[in-house]
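cron nightly-structures :: item 1 of 1
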Amino acid sequence: MLLADCVDGVKFAGVCFDSSPAKFDVRKIATAASHAAGGGAIGTVMYGLAVCLLSMAFALDAAGLLGGDSIDSFYSTMLHAPPLGPELFLFSEADTLTDYAFVEEVIAARSKLGGPDIGAVKFDGSPHVGHLRAYPEQYRTAVRGWLSKL
Protein backbone atom coordinates (compact mmCIF):
# COMPACT_ATOMS: atom_id res chain seq x y z
CA MET A 1 0.00 0.00 0.00
CA LEU A 2 1.33 3.42 -0.84
CA LEU A 3 1.99 5.83 2.00
CA ALA A 4 -0.41 8.30 0.36
CA ASP A 5 -3.17 5.75 0.95
CA CYS A 6 -2.17 5.26 4.59
CA VAL A 7 -2.15 8.85 5.83
CA ASP A 8 -5.63 10.33 5.61
CA GLY A 9 -5.69 13.83 4.18
CA VAL A 10 -1.96 14.11 3.49
CA LYS A 11 -0.98 15.23 0.00
CA PHE A 12 2.54 14.36 -1.04
CA ALA A 13 4.27 16.82 -3.35
CA GLY A 14 7.32 14.62 -3.88
CA VAL A 15 9.73 12.20 -2.24
CA CYS A 16 13.46 12.43 -1.55
CA PHE A 17 15.21 9.09 -0.96
CA ASP A 18 18.54 9.33 0.88
CA SER A 19 20.36 5.97 0.81
CA SER A 20 17.13 4.20 -0.01
CA PRO A 21 15.13 2.22 -0.89
CA ALA A 22 17.08 -0.68 0.52
CA LYS A 23 16.51 -4.36 -0.14
CA PHE A 24 16.13 -6.59 2.89
CA ASP A 25 19.55 -8.19 3.37
CA VAL A 26 20.10 -10.08 6.62
CA ARG A 27 23.91 -9.98 6.35
CA LYS A 28 24.09 -6.23 5.71
CA ILE A 29 21.67 -5.35 8.50
CA ALA A 30 23.43 -7.69 10.94
CA THR A 31 26.80 -6.16 10.01
CA ALA A 32 25.38 -2.68 10.69
CA ALA A 33 24.11 -3.89 14.09
CA SER A 34 27.56 -5.29 14.88
CA HIS A 35 29.25 -2.00 13.98
CA ALA A 36 26.67 -0.01 15.97
CA ALA A 37 27.50 -2.16 19.01
CA GLY A 38 31.17 -1.21 18.69
CA GLY A 39 32.47 -4.48 17.27
CA GLY A 40 34.44 -6.89 19.42
CA ALA A 41 32.66 -9.57 21.45
CA ILE A 42 29.51 -7.49 21.85
CA GLY A 43 29.46 -6.82 18.12
CA THR A 44 29.78 -10.53 17.41
CA VAL A 45 26.86 -11.29 19.74
CA MET A 46 24.81 -8.51 18.10
CA TYR A 47 25.61 -9.90 14.65
CA GLY A 48 24.46 -13.39 15.63
CA LEU A 49 21.35 -12.10 17.37
CA ALA A 50 20.46 -9.92 14.38
CA VAL A 51 20.92 -12.81 11.94
CA CYS A 52 18.62 -15.02 14.03
CA LEU A 53 15.90 -12.42 14.54
CA LEU A 54 15.98 -11.09 10.99
CA SER A 55 15.96 -14.58 9.50
CA MET A 56 12.89 -15.45 11.58
CA ALA A 57 11.19 -12.20 10.58
CA PHE A 58 11.94 -12.84 6.91
CA ALA A 59 10.56 -16.40 7.13
CA LEU A 60 7.41 -15.22 8.94
CA ASP A 61 6.94 -12.48 6.34
CA ALA A 62 7.39 -14.92 3.46
CA ALA A 63 4.76 -17.17 5.05
CA GLY A 64 2.38 -14.21 5.37
CA LEU A 65 2.25 -14.49 9.16
CA LEU A 66 3.21 -10.91 10.04
CA GLY A 67 0.12 -9.28 8.57
CA GLY A 68 0.12 -6.14 6.50
CA ASP A 69 2.14 -5.69 3.36
CA SER A 70 5.00 -8.09 2.73
CA ILE A 71 8.58 -7.19 1.91
CA ASP A 72 7.95 -8.37 -1.65
CA SER A 73 4.94 -6.04 -1.84
CA PHE A 74 7.21 -3.13 -0.91
CA TYR A 75 9.66 -4.05 -3.68
CA SER A 76 6.82 -4.37 -6.17
CA THR A 77 5.42 -0.97 -5.16
CA MET A 78 8.82 0.67 -5.59
CA LEU A 79 9.18 -0.83 -9.07
CA HIS A 80 5.62 -0.48 -10.38
CA ALA A 81 3.64 2.23 -8.57
CA PRO A 82 3.53 5.60 -10.31
CA PRO A 83 5.51 8.39 -8.62
CA LEU A 84 3.48 10.70 -6.38
CA GLY A 85 5.46 13.74 -7.48
CA PRO A 86 9.06 14.66 -8.26
CA GLU A 87 11.45 12.13 -6.75
CA LEU A 88 15.12 12.49 -5.90
CA PHE A 89 17.38 9.53 -5.16
CA LEU A 90 20.66 10.23 -3.34
CA PHE A 91 22.93 7.18 -3.12
CA SER A 92 26.46 5.80 -3.38
CA GLU A 93 28.17 2.60 -4.51
CA ALA A 94 30.15 2.74 -1.26
CA ASP A 95 27.00 2.34 0.86
CA THR A 96 27.38 -0.94 2.77
CA LEU A 97 23.70 -1.13 3.79
CA THR A 98 21.79 -0.07 0.67
CA ASP A 99 22.51 -1.92 -2.55
CA TYR A 100 23.11 0.78 -5.16
CA ALA A 101 22.15 -1.62 -7.97
CA PHE A 102 18.63 -1.93 -6.51
CA VAL A 103 18.39 1.87 -6.22
CA GLU A 104 19.40 2.14 -9.89
CA GLU A 105 16.81 -0.52 -10.79
CA VAL A 106 14.11 1.48 -8.96
CA ILE A 107 15.19 4.72 -10.67
CA ALA A 108 15.02 3.09 -14.11
CA ALA A 109 11.63 1.50 -13.41
CA ARG A 110 10.09 4.67 -11.99
CA SER A 111 11.49 6.76 -14.85
CA LYS A 112 9.76 4.44 -17.35
CA LEU A 113 6.45 4.95 -15.56
CA GLY A 114 6.43 8.57 -16.73
CA GLY A 115 4.82 11.32 -14.75
CA PRO A 116 6.82 13.64 -12.53
CA ASP A 117 10.53 14.22 -12.73
CA ILE A 118 12.79 11.46 -11.38
CA GLY A 119 16.25 12.74 -10.38
CA ALA A 120 19.29 10.94 -9.04
CA VAL A 121 22.70 11.80 -7.67
CA LYS A 122 25.20 8.98 -7.27
CA PHE A 123 27.90 10.14 -4.86
CA ASP A 124 31.45 8.85 -5.05
CA GLY A 125 32.51 6.99 -1.93
CA SER A 126 30.10 8.35 0.68
CA PRO A 127 28.73 5.92 3.30
CA HIS A 128 25.08 5.12 4.12
CA VAL A 129 23.25 8.41 4.83
CA GLY A 130 26.65 10.17 4.78
CA HIS A 131 26.29 12.05 1.50
CA LEU A 132 25.57 15.45 3.09
CA ARG A 133 28.68 15.19 5.28
CA ALA A 134 30.88 14.01 2.41
CA TYR A 135 29.53 16.32 -0.32
CA PRO A 136 27.66 19.21 1.35
CA GLU A 137 27.47 21.54 -1.66
CA GLN A 138 26.54 18.87 -4.20
CA TYR A 139 23.93 17.46 -1.79
CA ARG A 140 22.39 20.86 -1.04
CA THR A 141 22.30 21.79 -4.73
CA ALA A 142 20.49 18.54 -5.57
CA VAL A 143 17.95 18.94 -2.76
CA ARG A 144 17.31 22.61 -3.61
CA GLY A 145 16.75 21.65 -7.24
CA TRP A 146 14.28 18.97 -6.18
CA LEU A 147 12.51 21.35 -3.78
CA SER A 148 12.10 23.92 -6.56
CA LYS A 149 9.99 21.34 -8.48
CA LEU A 150 7.50 20.86 -5.65
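cron nightly-structures :: done
The radius of gyration is 17 Å.
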